[in-house]
Amino acid sequence: MSDLPSELQDDSSPSESSVHGAAIGPLPGASELAQQVSRPGDRSGSDRADVAEVATEPTGVSGRPLPRVIAVANQKGGVGKTTTTVNLGAALAELDHRTLVVDLDPQGNATTGLGINYRSLDHTMYDVLLHDVALEDCIEPTEVKHLFVAPASLDLAGAEIELVPAFSRESRLKRAIAEVLDDYDFILIDCPPSLGLLTVNGLVAATEVLVPIQCEYYALEGLAQLTRNVELVRTNLNPSLEISGIVLVMYDGRTRLAEQVVTEVRAHFGPKVCRNMIPRNVRLSEAPSFGQPITTFDPSSRGAVAYRELAREVSGGS
Ligand SMILES: Nc1ncnc2c1ncn2[C@@H]1O[C@H](COP(=O)(O)OP(=O)(O)O)[C@@H](O)[C@H]1O
Ligand SMILES: [Mg+2]
């Protein structure tokens, strides 16, 4: 049985699901998220009233005014943050939106995934955050028209610690982005898999958070903590921040588990969940090793089609 309060349960959802016949219990993290939804505080009244309020909020990821600064965040690793940042960015660029991908992960996967070798660079995000180098001086064009990247290298790992005593340590990225904001329609920030100072810089610089959720058993685990942190940043540092979108990735429609995850995520996040889901598609995992987004690596693949549709949804084109 699900741990959710009855008000949050979708009647159509099975109380017990199965993957290829095997029974699945409640998803880990679901009850914690449910408690958060019904937590007393900013919304008063019953759970039902809370849900009604969420459902009527004019929120969601679609068609907000430009320019938009979107942090792609989830403190779990391997959930599709970088894949979503790179390929949503490329698909937005294909729609003629000038798009900047800011790589805030010391692993630099968005950087290499867009064909940039950080070893050949004079400046990276480390210099922007720690040495007041202008963001403009670190931005590189990519092979995709309208798509640019502010690259990361491994030394960014040190920034997490070096930033601790720094002046205005949480808002360094925000200040850097302010200088280039007029040049872009979309700025997508690929956050590292942690809730440390780098991610906080991403959340302070952005007005929106896009959260990729992998359609697997532990999908909801950690989401309560992520939403609490977004709330903390909103209260203390950036009043305009909100989770604008949840994107379900690595979706495999053949499994009951994926369906269960979709049902629970929609029950919690309602209209914030993007209509378009990203399927599990091997071409998406192959593209980075060729330094290309999926839209140029394999333009007709299911992954490319899905990210194009997501880009249309996000930009308000459909
Ligand atoms: N929709 C997908 N289908 C297949 N593989 C995917 C998909 N999305 C991501 N991957 C693969 O999963 C792994 C983790 O994705 P990544 O975007 O790097 O996650 P994160 O940035 O959250 O750590 C990578 O190897 C990536 O290529
Ligand atoms: Mg990543």
Summarize, please.
The chain is an alpha/beta fold. It has 13 helices and 9 strands. It has a single domain, classed as Rossmann fold.
Count of structural domains: 1
Which architecture does the CATH hierarchy give at level 2? Answer: 3-Layer(aba) Sandwich
Order of helices and strands: EEHHEHEHHEEHHEHEHEHHHH
Strand order of the largest sheet: 5-6-4-7-3-8-9
What is the CATH class name? Alpha Beta
Provide the CATH superfamily. P-loop containing nucleotide triphosphate hydrolases
The helical percent reads 25-40%
In angstroms, what is the radius of gyration? 19 Å
Distance between the amino and carboxyl termini: 37 Å
Specify the structural class. alpha/beta
Question: Which ligands, by name, code or SMILES, are bound?
Answer: adenosine-5'-diphosphate, magnesium ion
